[in-house]
Amino acid sequence: MSRNSTAEFILLVAFLNALVALSIDTMLPAIGVIAHDLGAADPNDRQFIITALFGGMTVGTLIYGPASDSIGRKPAIFIGLVIFAIGALTCLFATTFSTMLAGRFIQGLGAASPRFVSTAMVRDGLAGSAMARVMSFVMTVFMLVPILAPSIGQLVLFFFHWRFIFGGFFIAALLAGLWLGFRQEETLPMDRRRPYSFLALFASGKEAVRHPVTLGYTLATGCVFSGLIAYLGTSQQIFAELYEQGALFTIWFAGFAVALALSTVANGRFVMRLGMRAITKWALRASIGLSLVFLALAIACGGKPPLALLGVYLFANFFCNGLLFGNYNALALEPVGHIAGMASAVSGFIFSVISMVGGTLVGQTYNNTVIPLAAGFAGFGLLAFVLTEWAESKRPLLKA
User: Fold this and answer.
1) Do 60 and 80 meet the contact criterion of CB atoms below 8 Å apart?
2) How far apart are CA 329 and CA 332, in angstroms?
């Protein structure tokens, strides 16, 4: 499968996956300074530095998976890394805010390739429990990134200019390309490749969205991610400015990333015993209940409840949401396993569009209170509840 050891292969796949998280989380301490230096018109415009990258990734979701089936995994990842590096350089030398956003979109367009195609590399050589074992190690390494990346960005701001962050992204892409090129063999042989077909992608997408279980859980995934994107866009404003935490913002962010990591570990331990539907059912209800209670408290406190209360709420809510992310995606693809690759691309595109639009709308209503964020989590949670209940109501009819 490769010239390297299994341990090195896991680290390579984890590094390729981590480029997305690095591109998001390292930026968070700097987005206010960047927006100010480049003349952003509104304080909330800084959020577009995050959502522009998601926009590029959304487009890339439909491109790289099917393309890698045709041209091979390594060429597809190389193309993505080159585009990612071009985006990083565009941001590095940006002199206007619009150029910065264009660079971030290009960066996201490139980042989609190593993020999604690297998983296909694992699938090419492994299956079943062996694949699950490797991916569990990959996710263990990957979960460290959101914990550490904001502190890296903050350290850069302490000692250098924010442009050095984008220089770091360029170097990361270069290192990933060299590592992939010299240490990893192609995992998809020529006899297993198939021509890229837009018609096949369209047909698979049509079949996927016509299945109520797939459609319901795909839309619900978009709702859950909307809250996460709203948080990513506003977290620096809330902690560094509203609560005046300054550089300590990175510590708070790391704590909430730990909640997501713990939920992943808990899910892996209990999913076989309890089942995905039972876990997601109660995790979603807990998230909605927590958000509604916290929303009421936030309104009663004039939009700025005690910092400790906000911290407890977000930690518990992210633990609940972490139980939803992977399970919802698996439940969405469960009925369309015969077209899993194509369906995954289409499903990923749909929920990415929903989450990007929904998260941006919530983020843009930020008004120096935590009310919009809490309302967003509660509202999107309720919508996800309606969608999943509808999907489950159709399941017995499909089996009849």
Assistant:
1) yes
2) 5
